[in-house]
Amino acid sequence: MALKAAFIFIGPSADPDKHRSVVSTPGVELTAVGVSDYAAAEKVAIALVDEGVVAIELCGGFGHAGTARIARAVEGKAAVGVVRFDSHPGLGGKSGDEIF
Question: I need a labelling partner for 77 at 20 to 30 A (CA). Which of 44, 48, 50, 87 fits?
């Protein structure tokens, strides 16, 4: 059975119902989902865990507070990791913590 993992990214006007894709390899099924803010990311993370995802990686737009919110939302049911940017180029050089 392949590892079910996910990557959640923040983007302006990203809609998790429309901006979603799945890449399947023999060892990993990776679901990538775009969200517009931390609140949407929390909902998506919970839904992904309900679908069997056990590892969630967050884009560099998630700051420390955003990462903590997702970790709390999944309540230890999935490992949560993050790509690290202190100032994300896709968010005008800011951390998501400054925006959301």
Answer: 87
CA distances from 39 to 3, 42, 46, 51, 64 (A): 26, 5, 11, 19, 15
Give the model confidence (pLDDT) of 23-38 as tens digits: 999 999 999 999 999 9
Instruction: Say which residue the tokens 């951390």 belong to.
Output: 95
pTM: 0.86
Beta bridge partners of 20: 33
For residue 85, the SS3 value is coil
The chain-wide mean pLDDT, for the chain, equals 93
